[in-house]
Structure formats: C-alpha cells, structure tokens
Amino acid sequence: MIGAFAIYFREGGADDVDKTVLEMVCRKAAIAIEQRNLADQLAHQARYDTITGLPNRVMLDDRLQQAVARSRRDELPVGLLLIDIDRFKVVNDTLGHKAGDLLLLRIAQRLGVALREADTLSRIEGDEFAVVLPGMGDSESAARVAGRLLELLKEPFMIEGRELFIGASVGISIFPQDGSDSVTLQKTADTALHMAKSAGRGQFRMFAPEMNAAALERLQMETSLRRALESKELAASYQPKVDREGKMVGVEALLRWTHPTLGPVSPAKFIPLAEECGLIVPMGIWVLNEACHQAKAWQKAGLRPVPVAVNVSMLQFAQPNFVNFVAETLRQHELDARWLELEVTESLLLHDAAATAAKLEAIRDLGVAVALDDFGTGYSSLAYLQKLPIDTLKIDRSFVSAIQEQTTVIRAILSLAHSLGMKVIAEGVETVAQREFLLSIGCNEMQGYFFSKPVAPDEIEELMRADQPLGGALLPWAKSA
Ligand code: C2E
Ligand code: MG
Ligand code: MG
C-alpha cells in the first residue's frame, strides 16, 4: 500500500457504481505515485553516490559550472581538488567489498568535516573524490586545504575492528588560470593528480605553472618532511673531528633525509625549510636523542669514548625548557655530559645577548661543551664573542676553501679565540695544503672530507677500531704547535 483514499458522505453511501469508479481512480493514482517515486529515485541516483550519499560526478559538474559562473562575477578563484585514495584497492581485495564500502563512507565523513559549507565534496568514481572550493580568498588556499585533507587521511581508520592506514594523492587546478571551463579544470586537475601520484604517496600537486613554484615546492617539502619525521626517513651520519695528529677526537652528528622517491635531500635544503615551519624543533629532539643513543652504544661496544657534537638551531635553543630537555636526554641515555657537545651559530647573538649567555652558561653547568659553528659567516660581533661562554670556535668552511686569500683573517680569528681561551677547529678541510697551513698557524682540530666524509655509525666504529691517524702521515714539524 502506498496510500489511502477516503471519501466521506453526508447522507446515504456509495453504490456499486461509485465503488468501481473509486477503485479505478485509486489504481490510477497509485500508478502515478509509484512512477513519481521511481523518477525521483532515479534522479537522485543520477546525482548522488549510493555508498557515501555524496554528490556524484554529474552533480560535481553542475556545482563546478555554477562556481565558475559565480567567479566570473565576483572574481574570487575557484579550486578543484581531485583526491585519489592510495591503498584502497588493497583494502577492497583483502577485506571484501563491505569493508571497502564502509571505508569509503568513513573517508567521506572525515573529509566532509574539514570543508566549508560552500564547498562540494563528491565521490566521482571508485576511490576518487573531488572537492570544489568556490570563492577562495587566494589561490594558495587550495594547497592549504589539500595539505589539511592529506593530514586527515593519514590518521588510521577503524573498520571491522581493524586499524587501516591509507593515504591519498591530490591534484589541484584553479579557475581561472588553469582552465576557463569546468571540463578543462577537471583535465588539468587530473594531470596534477598524476604528477602527485608519480611523486610518491601522500602528496599534492598544483597544476598552475604560473603559481609561485618555490612556494609550492616548499609546501610540498613541508608535507614530506612531516612524514619523514614519522616514518623513519631520517638518519644521522657522523663526521670525525681530528686533532693535530689526525687522531679522531670527536664526531659531529649530521642529519640525513632520504625521501622515498627523490632520494637523499641535502640538509642545506631541508634544514632552512624545517626552521621556517618550526619542524626543526621536533627534528632537533630526534637528533639529540639519536646522537646520545649512538654515543652510548659506541661506549657499550667498548670503543674509546669521544664527544658527539649535535647542531642546535636557534629556534630549538629558544625553547624555554631547552636546558632541561638536554639534561633529561642525557639522563635517559645514561650518557655522561662530557660526551656531548652542542654546536650553535652566531644567529643566537641576534637575540638578547645576556639571556643567550645565561642559557649557554646553564648548558655548560651541565657539563656539556658549546661550540660556535660557521664562525665568520654571520654577524661576527667580536665584542659579543668575548662575553659568550663558548668552548670552541669552528672556522667556517668558506675561509678554509679560500685559504690563500684569507690567511690574515684566519690568523686573526685564531689568535683572538686563543686569547679568549677557546679552542679552534677548522671546518671543510679538503686538501693537504689546507691542513699544513692550519697546522702551521696553530689550529687545534680539523674536520673535513680530507679526513673523512660524514659516515654511518658502523663506519665510525671501524675507524675507531683501526685507530689510525686520519688523512695520512704528517710532516714531523707539524706535530707540535
Ligand atoms: P655544519 O654544522 O657546519 O656541518 C658541516 C657541513 O659541512 C656538513 O654538511 C658536512 O657534510 C659538510 N662538510 C664537512 N666537511 C666538508 C668538506 O671537506 N667539504 C665540503 N664541501 N663540505 C664538508 P651537511 O651535512 O650538508 O649539513 C649542512 C648544515 O646543515 C650543517 O652545517 C648544519 O648547519 C645543518 N645541519 C645538519 N644536521 C643538522 C641537525 O641535526 N640539526 C640542525 N639544527 N642543523 C643541522
Ligand atoms: Mg655543525
Ligand atoms: Mg659549520
């Protein structure tokens, strides 16, 4: 029964003829209602996806066209994101369609929460979703939304009592620059999606070539860096520091990042980026832990202990609990403070010099030595240098590589440092001539490819066990200074 048909009489009642007519009317009405219901259902199915209840491709197309039309009037850019779920097929194949459908629904719900009311989230086919972002404040908001959605999809999904980790790739196109109509926009977003997929999982790509490429790369790198921290793509390598006789008297921990598709990324590239977006703080925590762990491991393996130096960024140093954190890390790893050294740069001096000095003093009170890295490249305020509690000055590589022209400066730095009671170490020593010169003017320690490149911990162990002077034999006169 799809309805009831009632007729009321003031007097008398319906005779048989009336009843036949009513029956006929009822049947016709029922047919009409059924037809209408079916038509509505078909219309809904034509515009909505049955699994997630989201608009489908047809509806997306409509909404995109509307957004484009509006943008022609209000001139606010429209963004189109195509989202491809990375590991959906595996879930579907191993857990079955029911689980697959449930996962799609959960994905839809999670994505929906992160969008504005005006945005249209749509499932366009299989494991592909799309989002129309009408009236964006600027073109880069699309990238920000994409980054946020990717973050959300990294969180595990609970499906049938199982924790599932999926991920996604996102391609982005923007109206008007990437296409003047909805069809072109979908094509350019698809191209961008392909680029994102081939660059590895969990990434987004913007189609717009005229958008600031550097800013874009930074945003992407930032996303990758966040992942790097979580997924063990980071490692520390160690570069020996040698004394005047080539004996290893310390190592410096240097961060290494191997991107799953790009391969090794230079610290010169990712450290400044990590500093900009604040990731350097958790990364610095990671390195300090790793270095302390490694130092302890070498000692446990019976090697002659040497201090391990860790680079500290200004941002990390500025954390109010930094000194406590260092103390706590040493305690956790049961590492004696004299086996840790921190390398800071002159950029610290840009800030409150008195506060900086006090903090450095607190670090030294723990028993941890402090070195001033890259000396000579920054603000090099000699007046401040005098006031800073620093154990070691590291002469920057740029002086060493231009040693011919820089002899006077290097000599001056050395005598100044020595008169302030600091030790001097030269960075980036690559040739025998550089070593000879540095030795001849009384440099205390050296570090550089000439002795060893930064290497994996087990190679350090081998070098320690071999116990040979690094960089080959020395001229006899050079031994004492
Ligand atoms: P840095 O602390 O001055 O480290 C020395 C850099 O010079 C290292 O580059 C090292 O590989 C390179 N180097 C050493 N000897 C030679 C040589 O003979 N010739 C040449 N051409 N280069 C040499 P790397 O590992 O690329 O690191 C670059 C910078 O990134 C570091 O400079 C440091 O400022 C920063 N960095 C690296 N790891 C960390 C870290 O864990 N935390 C922080 N905050 N910064 C880090
Ligand atoms: Mg350093
Ligand atoms: Mg340096």
Helix-strand makeup class: alpha/beta
If helices are DSSP runs of H or I spanning 4 or more residues, what is the number of helices? Answer: 17
* Amino- and carboxy-terminal Cα gap: 107 Å
Question: CATH class of the largest domain, please?
Answer: Alpha Beta
Mean pLDDT: 88
Q: Please tell me the CATH architecture of the largest domain by its name.
A: Alpha-Beta Barrel
Cα Rg: 34 Å
Principal-axes geometry comes out as elongated
Tell me the β content. 15-25%
Helical content stands at: 40-55%
CATH superfamily of the largest domain: EAL domain
Structural account:
The model has no long low-confidence stretch (mean pLDDT 88). The chain has helices at residues 16-47, 57-74, 88-95, 97-113, 140-154, 182-198, 213-230, 267-277, 280-300, 314-317, 322-332, 353-366, 382-387, 397-401, 403-419, 432-440, 457-466; strands spanning 78-85, 120-125, 128-133, 157-159, 162-164, 168-175, 204-206, 234-242, 248-259, 263-265, 308-311, 340-345, 369-375, 392-395, 423-426, 445-446. Helix 12 (353-366) links the parallel strand 12 and strand 13. It has 481 residues and is an alpha/beta fold. It contains 17 helices and 16 strands. The chain folds into two domains: 57-209, Alpha-Beta Plaits; 233-474, TIM Barrel (Alpha-Beta Barrel). The chain starts with 15 loop residues before the first helix and ends in a 15-residue tail after the last helix. Bound molecules: ligand C2E and magnesium ion (2 copies). One magnesium ion binds next to strand 13. The site of one magnesium ion has 4 residues, from loops.
